[in-house]
Amino acid sequence: MPSFKTLDDIAPAGKRVLIRVDLNVPMEDGKVTDMTRIERVAPTIAELADKGAKVVVLSHFGRPGGKVVPEMSLKALVEPLAATLKKPVAFAENCIGPLAQQAVAALKNGDIVLLENLRFHKEEEKNETGFIDQLAALGDIYVNDAFSCAHRAHASTEGIANRMPAVAGRLMQAELVALDKALGTPRRPVAALVGGAKVSTKLELLGNLVSKVDRLVIGGGMANTFLHAQGINVGKSLCEKDLAGTARDILAKAAAAKCKVLLPVDAVVAGAFKAGAASLTVDIAAVPDDQMILDIGPKSIAMLKSDLAECATLVWNGPLGAFEVAPFDAGTVAIAREAASLTSAGKLLSVAGGGDTVAALAHAGVEDKFSYVSTAGGAFLEWMEGKELPGVAALVRAA
Ligand code: 3PG
Ligand code: MG
After folding, report:
1. How many CB atoms neighbour CB 377 within 10 A?
2. Residue 306: helix, strand or coil by DSSP?
3. Residue 377 Cβ < 6 Å to ligand 1
4. Which residues have CB under 8 Å from 257's CB, separation 6+?
5. How distant is the alpha carbon of residue 95 from its chain centre?
6. R_g over Cα of the chain
7. Over the chain, what is the mean pLDDT?
8. In sequence order, which residues have a C-beta less than 8 Å from that of residue 288 and are 6 or more positions away?
9. 333 CA distance to ligand 1 centroid (A)?
10. pLDDT (tens digit per residue) in 156-214
C-alpha cells in the first residue's frame, strides 16, 4: 500500500487544523436523508477536537458551479453535524476572506467551525493557486478525510496538500486500508462482482479487473451486452449492441489472464419493467423475443453461491438485477446475504462501494455485515479502474 501520514503523526493541540470532509449527503426539503457520511467522518473531527485542535471543517455540497446557490449552503449541515458529534459547531458564511478568517480566529482549543461550501468559488474546482493560498492561510495542518472526493484534483483535495503538512484522517485511512486488502494485496481467490445497467460506464473498470481478480461476476443490465456478444438472444432487454466487440475483447483479455468470467445461466424476465409485472424464469438460451431480463435466476444464484464459497475476497460494485422493483431484487438480495454470512463466518473479506451498491446492500439488510462498505461513489469506481486518485497521491507525496 502507498504510504501516507495519519493523525498519529501530528501534534494537533493548539493548532488550526483544516479538515476536508465530504458532507455531500442526500437531502430532501432541507433534511439529511442518509447520515452515513456524517457518521463516518465524525470520529476524526471529534479526535482532533478532543486533542485540543482548533478544527476548521471544509466541504463541498452539490455542484453549484462556482456561484452562491442558497439551496446548496452547508449551513443546513451544522445541526446534523453538531448532533452527531455531540459538540457545538460554529459556521462561517464563506470559506475564504474576512468571514472565514474571523471565524477561525475566534476558535479556542477544541472548538469546531464549518466553513461555507467550497464550490461557491469556481477556483476550488480549478485548483487555483490564489484560492489554495487563501485556504492554506486559515490553518497550520491539513487533514484529508474525504476519500469519496479523492478522484477530484481540486484546491481542497489536492492543491492544498502540497502547501502544508498533510495527513489522512481516520476515514480516509480506513478506506485505503480496506481497498488495499480487497485489490492491492488480497487473499486469493479474489472475486469481483460488477453489476449495473451499462457496460459503457464500466469498460475501464472491467478491463482493469480481469488482470487483477480470479473471478469476475457480471450481472445487471451490463451482462446482457456480454450475452448478446456471445450470440445469445436477450429479447427486449437493455443491451448495448454496439459494444459487442468490446465485450468480446474483455472476455478474451480475461481468458488470457486466467480470470474466470461468470455470466447468468438463467434469468427472471418480464414484458415490462414494472412492480408486479408477470415474470417468469427461463434458461439464458430461451429468453422470449418480447421479454426483458430483469434479474438473475435461481440456477445463477446457486452457481454464484458455490463460487463465492471458494473465494477469500470479494469486491462488489453494482446490483445484479433491477433491485429497486420486486421481485427483481431476489438475485441481488440472495447474493448479498450469502456474502454477508460468509463474512460473518470469517470465510470472506467483503468490500463494497458505489451509490447503488450501498442502497442494494441496505435493501438486503446487510450493509453492516460486509467487512467494509465505502462511502465513495465515483472515487470507488475510479479506484476499481486502477486510476491514481489525485487526493490520495497528494497525501503520499506529502508523507
Ligand atoms: C460524491 O458524492 O461522489 C462526492 O461528494 C463527489 O462529488 P462530485 O461528483 O460532485 O465531485
Ligand atoms: Mg459523484
Report:
1. 18
2. helix
3. yes
4. 210, 211
5. 26
6. 23
7. 96
8. 235, 269, 282
9. 27
10. 999 999 999 999 999 999 999 999 999 988 999 999 999 988 888 898 899 999 999 99
Q: Is 97 left (phi over 0), alpha (psi -120 to 50) or beta?
A: left
Q: pLDDT per residue over 231-259, tens digit each?
A: 999 999 999 999 999 999 999 999 999 99
Taking the C-alpha atoms of residue 261 and residue 214, their distance in angstroms, rounded to an integer, is 9
Is ligand 1 within 6 A of the CB of residue 7?
A: no
C-alpha cell at 21: 470532509
Ligand 1, residue 60: give the atom nearest the CA.
5
CA dihedral 65, 70, 74, 79 (to 10 degrees): -160
DSSP structure string for 213-236: -SEEEE-SHHHHHHHHHTT---TT
Helix 298-309 vs helix 330-344: angle between axes, to the nearest 10 degrees?
20
C-alpha cell belonging to residue 37: 457520511
Q: Are 343 and 350 in contact (CB under 8 A)?
A: yes
DSSP label at residue 61: -
Asked if 37 is an active-site residue, the reply is yes
Helix (H/G/I), strand (E/B), else coil: 262: strand
CA-wise closest residue to 183 among 338, 321, 312: 312
